[in-house]
Amino acid sequence: MTTLSRRGFLTAAGTGAAALVIGFHIPEGAARTVAPAPKAMMSPNAFLRIGSDESITVVIAHSEMGQGIWTGLAMLVAEELACDWTRIRCEHAPADAATYAAPGSPLQMTGGSSTTRGEYQRYREVGATAKDMLIRAAAARWKVAPADCVAENGAVVGKRGQRATFGQLAAEAMKLPPPASVKLKDPKDWKILGTPVRRLDSPEKVTGRATFGMDVQFPGLRTALVARPPAFGAMLVKFDAAAALKVPGVEKVVPAGNGVAVVAAHFWAAKLGRDALVVEWSQPEGGGLDTARFSAQLRKLVEAHGTDVGKEGSVDAGKVAATLTSVYEVPYLAHAPMEPLNCAVKINADGTCDIYTGTQAPSLDQQVAGGILGIAPDKVRVHTQFLGGGFGRRANPKQDFVAEAVLVAKAAGVPVKTVWTREDDIRGGFYRPAYAHRIVAKTDRAGAPIGWEHVVAGQSIMKGTPFEAFVVRNGVDPTSVEGLAESPYLRGAARHVSLHTPVTPVTVLWWRSVGNTHTAFAMECMIDELAHAAKADPLAYRLKLLDGAPRHAAVLKLAADKGGWGTPPPAGRARGLAVHESFGSIVAQCAEVSVEGDRIRVHHVACAVDCGPAVNPLGIEAQVHSSVVYGLTAALHGKLDLAGGAVQQGNFHDYPVLRMFEMPSVSVHVVPSTARMGGIGEPATAPIAPAVANAVYALTKQRLRALPLRLATVREARG
Amino acid sequence: MNKLVFTIITIASAACSGGRSSSGGGMVAAGDGLAAWETVRGVLQHPRCANCHPAGDQPLQGDEGRPHNQNVQRGPAGRGMVGAECTTCHGPANPPASYGAHTPPGVSNGWHMPTPEQPLVFVGVSSGALCAQVKDPAHNGGKDMAALRAHLDDPLVQWGWSPGLGRAPVPTPRAAFLAAWDAWAAAGAPCPAP
Amino acid sequence: MKLDVNGNVHDVDAPPDMPLLWVLRDLLGLTGTKFGCGMAQCGACTVHLDGNPVRACVTPVSTVGARKVATIESLSPDASHPVQRAWIEADVVQCGYCQSGQIMTATALLRRVPEPTDADIDAAMSGNICRCGTYGRVREAIHLAARLQKGGGK
Question: How far apart are CA B178 and CA C4, in angstroms?
């Protein structure tokens, strides 16, 4: 059987208890030309299994971290397969980039708001291919032409009333060769796609049955907590394990990288053991990073031009009526997913390794684990569990949390699950970097920008990673400046964007919507400043500049309209606008705010989205809500302070996140669009901070240029 | 008018209680009573005590008396809101030190605040107003001086001197507080002018 | 010590200070109750003690005594509890990690306040953090659960 080509191979989808489930595998879509080596039969390496029990299992090549792709990708399959939706279940694919990397990507990863648009073609083809095989199987059984059979709701039906379910046909269908090509449905014939569909993973998530990485348990698995450096730049000098080893339940104390792991029977013993551990760390070089000093450094940097990002046109000095200069700042931010990081690792005697974790990047996990263990990456099996939130943290070029767990398991010689506490998570680095922007805008007599000098300063996410070679060009990390030079507001302006990229020991990473978290804030607040300087209505001012950007203009108008722009807000409230394009989608928001004491309260956010064709409107709405909440946390609360290289915050009492009582009502308006499909996991994150800041200005005349937004009267609130 | 009545009551009360008080080994002058009250006041308005006697319905936290996070509210009976009762997070005793700083403290009789009907506000009130409020059964939960004295042994009051890891206890020693209270009571529980 | 969890009495060999959360998760294998902060800040570990919501992460197991512990696993294994049904109907969950705690708090609220207002919900639920931002649908689902509960449950 191992000699079968991938395109034709068949498999039983299980043995023992699942022996009745005969399945067939549909390989990747016809567009794929690479033909990887055949895989062992029992390795589930394709996208669909149809069981004789009528079960439809869609194998999801990406990680479900809340964004709803289990449902969305299953909908793509179901639309073409014409199966019974209630029979569908999903499972995470194993790590196997040759099979599961998204078309065009070398890596199996989830991020960049790319899953739905990246898999839009392939998963529909999976469904269409299976349907074609089932229909041909039925036709052969009934000795009729395939054209005389149709598939509907999980069965093939013949012209003379013959009927066979997919489960009944699965065994015969899997013996047929897949079609050379398939024709996908015309969108006008869609029955599922574009309709609101509830999540498939709800039942297990409301009963506590869903298994997250944190929940992985198997015989022999130990729990480890790792003592990590208290400051960025500090190095492990020595440790004394004696007291830790006296804690009942603690079994081993082992060094692991630049840390020390306490391995125990359960979390609590490991925690007490780590508390008792005596570790000596070196002082960070130069005393370590202080955020107050670093902010000043960034503000200093943006006073002079940096590396050119883009320079176009020159300003006609005679036309300049006014010059406005503003500096915007954002702090370091932790992702703080609800599920603290964790990773279970079992190193096997046969030279393989099993990793159980919620990961956004199984391919990278294989590489880092393989590298540490000296085995080929394909000897590393990654069992992706549900992710209790990702937001980028569970995909980083170093996969620090996986690498560390592998080091611990290797040093301990037993299967180990590392568990991070919330403090470990908040202080563990890989932050949204702190940034400063300085914009010098020159306007004409009408108040429109004709010159735009924009200097950005902040750490690069890509530099020093394997991605650097592919994305950093001429010293510019594009994620540092995304959305600036190409801003639709600046089509009529001479513009010069440049970048400073300081290096610090603080590790940084993409954080939901990446560079847009600060570029949208700077751009949309500055445009608002110019509108007010021109004594223009902020909507009208923007629309005039967006004359050549109809999609932007349309979503902005829609958000403004739905947010009540142009009608008087309730007493004591004001509204603010922002629109921003990222990840191929355009999102506009109209936020309505008030100020209660020293607290900014956001009452309502009207959000308009143009993300191209909508696969699951319910999923889009959820992602927009989610992005607004995530972005509001950054707008109102999020800030990490470092002193001597040590992060001062540690848990939700001093790194507060948005709670229920602060939740605005959010209305989501999806523009019907035939534009190229964009992402939706991130794009609604970026506009909310400027929309709120602009509303606060309208209400108070305080122009808040730093996140989190703090009114002049506000004392630093904790918790 | 109120002031006048208040003053008369104070005098009457002082005369009355002064007459029967001899626990301290003799009569206590009203002036000494006021000094003793000042010690009492300092304790009541210390954040360990005052944080649960706020002006509004949201308890306070920390030495700076910031609003309690999670939007915690007094609730209909002073025990928090339904589903978010004080005891949802505040257990029957302070958590063990191994739980770390910033974990919610606990007390055996259940964490709580004054009721909304008699909020007994310690925060932002003058010494005189606080004093009057404390003594007034219409504001203090119907307690006379003897009941008030007994209340000082309530576990939640005592908690102020053993607030758990990471919290500063009330700086006035508990014995000094009780002595000051007794002296104040013995002097007829005089109050400064409001 | 004896521990009554979801109607089953377990003989638990745990140090007295061990938080109930880790007894449930690591000793009894009941992983539906989640660890999120370890200091009663996030609500992911919410369980009921004699029907009252508590944060299991700051509850020493020795303080539980004879009180009955109920975890998410006790509501129903098949998502048939009105609150669970409402959660599915309102499509609340995203990553799902906080939802055990959200549901346990909501269940406690609905038991005492069968028809909560938005203000009741905000007050009860503000101790439960959701980083995916499902708050709007949590509110909606609690109202829906109130109706399902009133209707006697299907």
Answer: 43
